[in-house]
Amino acid sequence: MRELKMKLCVLMLPLVVSACASTPTVQAPCVKPPSPPAWIMQPVPDWQKPLNGI
After folding, report:
1. What whole-number distance in Å separates Cα of residue 52 and Cα of residue 54?
2. CA 54, CA 47: separation in Å to the nearest integer?
3. How far is it, in rounded angstroms, from Cα 7 to Cα 10?
4. May I ask which residue range the UniProt record assigns to the signal sequence (predicted)?
5. According to the 3-state scheme, what is the secondary structure of the chain?
6. What's the rounded Cα separation, in Å, for the pair 8 and 50?
7. Domain of residue 37, residue span
8. How confident is the model at residue 11 (pLDDT cuts 50, 70, 90)?
9. Degrees to nearest 5, angle at CA 49 with 45 and 51
10. pTM over the 0.85 mark
11. 2 belongs to a structural domain
12. Tally of domains in the chain
């Protein structure tokens, strides 16, 4: 049992050391989405009034 623990320690130590030594990845900058088109910002047309005149 003691040999197993020693083998695990020997196998895990390089992984831990390499993980601590590696540099963190650079995150991509946050891109602002474009503004919506002008036709989306206009009020919705009222189709009910023309249909009531029929």
Report:
1. 6
2. 12
3. 5
4. 1-21
5. CHHHHHHHHHHHHHHHHHHHHCCCCCCCCCCCCCCCCHHHHCCCCCCHHHHHCC
6. 80
7. 1-41
8. confident
9. 105
10. no
11. yes
12. 1
